[in-house]
Amino acid sequence: MSTSSPSPLLALRGIGKSFLGLRVLYGVDLDVWPGEVHAVVGENGAGKSTLMKVVSGVYSPDEGAVEFAGARRTFHGPRDAQRAGIGIVHQEFNLLPERTVAENVYLGHEPVRRGLVDRVAMLRRTAALLASIGEEALPADAFVRQIGVAQQQVVEIVKALALDARLLIMDEPTAALAGHEVEQLYALVRRLQERGIGVLYVSHRLKEVFDLSGRITVLKDGRRVTTLPTADTTPERLVRHMVGRELSSYYPDRAGPGEVGPARIAVHNGGNRKLRGVDLRLRAGEVLGVGGLQGSGRSALARALFGAAPFTTGEVTLDGAPVRLRSPRAAMRAGIAYVTEDRKGEGIVAGQPVLDNALLASRAVLPAWTGRRARTTRVRDLLAAVDVRAAGEDQEIRFLSGGNQQKVVLARWLALGPKVLLFDEPTRGIDVGAKSAIHDLVRRLARDGAAVLMISSELPELLGMSDRIVVMRDGRIAGELPAGATEEDVLALALGTAREAA
After folding, report:
1. What stretch of H or E contains 132?
2. How far apart are CA 261 and CA 258, in angstroms?
3. Is the domain of 40 the same as that of 169?
4. Which of 84, 299, 300, 375 has its CA 20 to 30 A from that of 342?
5. What 3-state class would DSSP assign to 282?
6. For 246-257, how does the pLDDT look when each residue is reduced to its tens digit (9 = 90+)?
7. Are residues 210 and 330 in the same domain?
8. Euclidean distance between CA atoms 490 and 472, whole angstroms
9. Last residue in a domain, options 402, 417, 432
10. Claim to verify: residue 401 and residue 364 sit in the same structural domain
11. Do 185 and 238 belong together in one domain?
């Protein structure tokens, strides 16, 4: 936080907002000082997104005032906010892959010379902006489709800086990043601070909040619960403010003695284009965690077990019998379920109702005339059992929160009574309350005899949920760790700095 500035960069005073008579924000106060990282946390539905849209000009407040750079502001749209110096980096990037970095940065406000786009000036300015935040290695003339996710995020940030942003809103900025890329983001945020740029940082990941922010504001049910100096609070205290319970309740007890059964699915020397030499045993009653860096083969392992990108070498057995999983349909009929990491792109049909989304797996496996009424009743019961909160089963799933969308996906697979469940980043982009509910459900499924494989980039989640952990590196299993392993143990195997274990 700046000590030299006489007033905050952003000041929200008594912000209220309603939609169709439904109150979403109640008199919210918040301020951000130059060079400050101010985190905003809360469960899904707490009002975070609505408040950020007020700041960025998407919505006008019904009550209260927005003050920016010492003046009261009325934004009539996002362009007004951008012109004032407010930029936003969304969780899902808004880039054109077939254009260069520079073309994306200056899209809509390209430098012009003699009536034509001045590409030389555009490249020069983009390179200067990249250099100003320590990203000289990213070529301004590279096509966006050729660069990685972390570099695409840099492009989004530079887009805002090209419009002279003094306040940057970052919405779940690490949702698509691997562990080592998160550290790069940390360094970038700190460089922005050094330039006096204020950052509103919205995240469900408490570690990031504590690593980066100077203050934290907690929202709950559209109200500001409290604003705390980060140094004066703890994750446990923060969770109590958000959801009213202790952090210790996040992770259910691991499998006890006698709860883990024989191998439900096993792979011997499995390989394909992305995997090689995979030996794996997944037992009934256990949660097997899979760690590793992005691109290490974690998702490729789940897709191979589900038949989406099947093993082309080696042997797979299910309950001791050889099985050929050459397609997702074959895997589903064998009792294998797969919750993909890409919920929006692969997990849901956004424009379809909740019930139709929940019935997708049953319709794919069972003939249309077989037990239609019974399976619909079962799916409805499962939607209630996993506590999906929606206006009704006919509501389009795109209007649900991320946590509720994920619960619909879970209900879809539970309707098949699977023996093996493959979870790839099951709590990505989900608030702390919904995470806890999904953790409990995963553990309950294991206790009921299912074999669960869970991939997670969040090391606390991986360590808290797993009975065993295998770590992937370069398409192979680098080693296996027991319950009680540390973050350092996982990273040592993922980075290749530890001797590989059997």
Report:
1. helix 119-132
2. 7
3. yes
4. 375
5. strand
6. 545 568 888 887
7. no
8. 10
9. 417
10. yes
11. yes
Q: Using alpha carbons, select from 37, 33, 17 the residue that is nearest to residue 25.
A: 17
Separation CA 397–CA 353 (nearest Å)? 6
In a domain, 121, yes or no: yes
Mean pLDDT of 163-190: 82
Collapsing DSSP to helix, strand or coil, 100 comes out as: strand
Q: In angstroms, rounded to a whole number, what is the distance separating the alpha carbons of residues 272 and 165? A: 47
Tens-place pLDDT, residues 249-300: 568 888 887 789 999 999 999 999 999 999 999 999 999 999 987 778 999 9
Our count of domains for the chain comes to: 3
User: Tokens 């794919």 belong to which residue?
Assistant: 364
Give the CATH number for residue 164: 3.40.50.300
* Strand, coil or helix: 3: coil
Looking at the fold, whether 439 and 329 belong to one and the same domain comes out as yes
Pairing of strands 116-117, 112-113: antiparallel
DSSP state letters, 329-382:
HHHHHTTEEEE-S-IIIII--TTSBHHHHHTHHHHHHS-TTSSHHHHHHHHHHH
Kindly state whether residues 280 and 135 are assigned to the same domain.
no
> In the predicted model, is pLDDT for residue 58 greater than 90?
yes
pTM for the full model?
Answer: 0.62
List the helix and strand counts (H, then E) for the chain: 17, 22
Which strands make up the sheet holding 420-424, listed edge to edge? 336-339, 420-424, 451-455, 287-291, 468-473, 476-482
Same domain, residue pair 168 and 35: yes
**Integer Cα distance of 427 and 494 in angstroms:** 21
Q: Which of 7, 13, 9 is nearest to 35 (CA)?
A: 9
Q: How far is 243 from 264, CA to CA, in rounded Å?
A: 36
d(CA 227, CA 217): 4
Q: Which two tokens stand for residue 166?
A: 């003094």
Domain that holds residue 83: 10-248
